[in-house]
Write a structure and sequence with these properties.
The protein is an alpha/beta fold and 168 residues long. The N terminus is likely disordered. The chain is built from three helices and nine strands; from the N terminus they run ββαββαββββαβ. The strands form three sheets. A five-stranded mixed beta sheet has the order 3-4-7-6-5, with helices on one face. Strands 1-2 form a two-stranded antiparallel sheet. It has a two-stranded parallel ribbon with strand order 8-9. The chain has a domain of 101 residues: Beta Polymerase, domain 2. It is globular, with a radius of gyration of 20 Å. The longest helix is centred in the middle third of the chain and has 12 residues.
């Protein structure tokens, strides 16, 4: 993170005071992340694709070093033709006013991914919803169980190959 010194003159006393200001900009942050995590990819919209094995380290770094202190959305998209899911995370820095979207690919035949709940407590219900509707298992989640459907419900209705009985 680049820091620079800003000189501020107090109008009333004429004294010069120095304070440290942190310049945070999303393209700069992403460049720093690419240097530290060479396995990530970034598209033209600045969406970061991160491999599952690097997810937790990168997420902790984003929270601790870049003030991305709020997980506003966690969802997933089913791509059955490619035998994968993409889990999508949308993070915000409340204090600095910027956001970043991250995606990670999960094998559809073995849909397991580490939980970000230990980093953002707000992931609790969001990971449970993705588990309930798509069947992605978040390891390390303290209470991974269905949240919308009853425990006896068979299957995961947001999977594109889910067969609705009497429905669509």
């Amino acid at each position: 993170m680049s820091e620079h010194v800003v000189e501020a003159t107090e109008e009333m006393t004429g004294e010069v005071e120095q304070e440290t200001a942190t310049a945070l900009d999303l393209p700069g942050i992403i460049e720093q992340l690419k240097q530290k995590y060479p396995q990530i990819e970034v598209d033209e919209k600045l969406t970061v694709m991160v491999p599952g094995e690097a997810l937790i380290g990168l997420m902790q770094e984003l929270k601790d070093s870049y003030d991305l202190d709020h997980l506003s959305n966690l969802t997933a998209v089913d791509y059955p033709d490619e035998a994968k899911f993409e889990v999508v995370y949308y993070l915000n820095s409340i204090g600095h006013g910027y956001s970043i979207m991250l995606k990670t690919v999960v094998n559809r035949n073995k849909p397991v991914l580490d939980s970000v709940f230990p980093i953002w407590g707000g992931a609790n219900w969001q990971e449970r919803e993705v588990y309930d509707l798509l069947g992605i298992v978040f390891t390390g989640h303290p209470n991974l169980k269905r949240i919308l459907l009853h425990d006896g419900f068979d299957g995961h209705p947001l999977r594109r190959d889910y067969e609705w009985v009497g429905g669509r």
